[in-house]
């Protein structure tokens, strides 16, 4: 597909929002799609693809764009992308055609460096190599690959086989990985949120790795389960399904907006055992202390395992912000562990591939909290339809 002038200008506008507001690429694309409703399906796919590429390897395209001092980065970066590729140079940038050989030469030199080849800040690259050694470049490569759409079938309303049959009848291209058993991976994007099935609550959008958490935590009917960092409720809703709406389910977060979204999603999903969905307060510690069979702590983190979907996070953090996140993780683990009853489980989860947030954080917690013992942990590396995740199961004596 060609770089039509209106699409180029749209990409410039979207990239400006990303660079100046630290807006996620998908949010910038959604803004453009609302502003330019006449863009067709192929136009939208083209714009979104280019925005994600410019953010994934932002350091590369910013470096190449420096040669045009008279152009702002949001205009120089897509220009560099055009000239570095084999694509036809559109008429409106032909005056820069004389720069093409130099841009391609510099591009070839830069991508020999893993920092530019995979789009990595130097400090994060160091942490990745410390965590994974010779496997790090493979992981960094996979974190730059586009993700596949995934749903979790809501077993409170329909069985996986029934949902699969409906999808097959309508001609969707998909596969069933087998585990998690409620998951469906689609071969390409579909407007699934516009289907009546979605409005009826028959499925939720949830990454494969995220769907593993409820099974790893061994959540089942009749339990008391607390989702301590619930966000908008993806794992909360899955817990309700695994509990078959039996037992007591609590969901807390610090964001009122996310809690409001969780409540809306719970109603659509047919969740009946959600006792409370609220903003967490110190008062909650007294009423719930030592009560839960499972406390799920999906802790705030760098999000390094989600770079496929959220590449802007690579450029959001610096070493100081990373250390603040680690301090927050320590705090929520120590605080919310008090909700676990004797013999109950504390399940610590991050969507990170960096060991400083994962196993090292668990080891430090166990040194501080002698009444907990390590049961097992699991690293999930990024792949098709799958974010990088870490989960650890600890038991209170």
Outline the structure in words.
There is one protein chain. The protein is an alpha/beta fold and 397 residues long. It folds into three domains: 5-117, no CATH class; 150-205, 2-Layer Sandwich (Alpha-Beta Plaits); 212-396, 3-Layer(aba) Sandwich (Rossmann fold), CATH 3.40.50. Helices cover 46% and strands 16% of the residues. It is built from 18 helices and eleven strands. The protein has helices spanning 5-21, 25-35, 41-56, 58-65, 73-84, 100-110, 114-117, 122-132, 136-142, 160-169, 196-199, 208-216, 234-242, 256-269, 282-288, 313-316, 319-336, 359-368; strands at 150-153, 174-175, 183-186, 203-205, 224-227, 248-253, 274-279, 292-298, 340-350, 372-380, 389-396. A hairpin with a 7-residue loop joins strand 2 and strand 3. Helix 1 packs across helix 2 (25-35), helix 2 (25-35) runs antiparallel to helix 3 (41-56) and helix 17 (319-336) crosses helix 18 (359-368). It starts with a helix and ends with a strand. The mean pLDDT is 96.
């Amino acid at each position: 597909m060609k770089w039509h002038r209106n699409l180029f200008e749209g990409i410039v506008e979207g990239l400006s929002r990303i660079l100046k507001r630290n807006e996620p690429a998908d949010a910038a694309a959604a803004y453009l799609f609302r502003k330019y409703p006449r863009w067709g399906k192929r136009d939208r796919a083209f714009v979104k693809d280019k925005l994600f590429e410019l953010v994934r390897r932002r350091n590369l395209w910013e470096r190449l764009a420096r040669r045009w001092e008279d152009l702002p980065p949001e205009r120089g970066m897509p220009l560099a992308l055009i000239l570095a590729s084999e694509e036809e140079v559109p008429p409106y940038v032909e005056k820069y055609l004389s720069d093409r050989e130099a841009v391609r030469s510099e591009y070839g030199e830069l991508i020999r460096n893993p920092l530019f080849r995979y789009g990595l800040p130097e400090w994060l690259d160091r942490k990745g190599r410390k965590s994974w050694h010779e496997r790090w470049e493979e992981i960094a490569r996979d974190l730059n690959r586009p993700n596949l759409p995934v749903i979790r079938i809501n077993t409170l309303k329909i069985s996986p086989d029934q949902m699969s049959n409906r999808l097959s009848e309508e001609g969707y291209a998909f596969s069933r990985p087998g585990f998690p058993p409620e998951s469906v991976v689609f071969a390409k994007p579909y407007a699934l949120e516009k289907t009546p099935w979605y409005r009826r609550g028959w499925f939720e959008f949830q990454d494969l790795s995220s769907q593993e958490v409820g099974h790893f935590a061994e959540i089942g009917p009749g339990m008391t389960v607390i989702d301590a960092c619930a966000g908008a409720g993806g794992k909360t809703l899955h817990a309700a399904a695994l509990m078959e709406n039996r037992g007591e389910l609590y969901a807390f977060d610090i964001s009122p907006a996310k809690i409001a979204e969780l409540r809306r999603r719970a109603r659509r999903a047919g969740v009946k055992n959600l006792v409370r969905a609220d903003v967490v307060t110190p008062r909650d510690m007294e009423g719930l202390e030592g009560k839960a069979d499972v406390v799920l702590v999906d802790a705030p983190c760098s999000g390094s395992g989600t770079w496929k979907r959220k590449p802007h996070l690579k450029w959001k953090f610096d070493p100081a912000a990373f250390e603040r996140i680690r301090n927050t993780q320590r705090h929520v683990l120590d605080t919310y562990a008090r909700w676990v009853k004797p013999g109950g489980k504390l399940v610590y989860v991050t969507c990170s591939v960096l060991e400083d947030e994962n196993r090292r954080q668990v080891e430090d917690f166990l040194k501080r909290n002698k009444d907990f013992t390590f049961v097992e942990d699991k690293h999930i590396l990024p792949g098709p339809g799958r974010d990088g995740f870490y989960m650890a199961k600890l038991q209170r004596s």
